[in-house]
Amino acid sequence: AALAEEEAPSLPPPTNRLYIPDLAGNFTYTSPAQLLHLTEIPPSEDSTLQKAEPLRTKVELVFDQTPFHPQGGGQPTDIGTITSDDGSVSLEVFHVSFSFDTNVVTHHCMLMSPTPPTLNATYTLSIDAARRENLSAFHSAGHLVDSAIYRLGYSMLVPKKGYHFTDGPYVEYGNGKEIDQAERKTIVSRLNQEFETLIDQDIPTTICMMVKEDAEAELNRTANNFDFSVFRDPQVRIVGIANFKCPCGGTHVASTSDLRGFEVTGIKMKKGDLRVKYNRK
Question: Is 170 helix (H, G, I), strand (E, B) or coil?
């Protein structure tokens, strides 16, 4: 069946991202949601689908709420499915994006059923739980690097970039040149000692929303490591991994004990920045 041309008359309101407010939301893998905005994407000749498959209709959907984490903040996109209760509507979610201008989450989908979705109807959104758990672990392990760095006394290092994909994750810090050559030779082994200690301590993850000014005062009290001017909203989401707190919009594990098996694999200096690489053993 052809997809009806349906669009909301105005921009949808900000999406309620279920994983944002607290840790429990990070383990919400399925949820009902009302469809607020629908856009059909015309099929293109360079479709990524195999030629043996029928050409599927691509759609972009916006709901009032979602358990899906969009790609961003160094974390890959969630994938999953969207279905109706009676099974007549079925879509595969292959990518999820987020607009910082509107705070709207868009689900990029492939229509798998003859029946298309309709505006204002309620559907079940389900993420790939195994993928989410793996990506959460890789993201949290990056924060564990932050905690280990801080525990070694390197508060002068400024977090600049986190790449938490599974293909070579790392955390990059400014002011890396302040660590002398002798210390660099032993930093990997010392970081791994901290990893083992923090993992054995089974430290619970914390997630909370804080007023931006309060968060800046608390997190930058020992070093001006975080630039809060980039945050547009009056409240900032603060994640604590191994008692190290930082602003973050990603999903995470429940405790440091869930990170057993991760290790620091090496460091690299580039234009004065220190890149700390990590991965599963």
Answer: strand
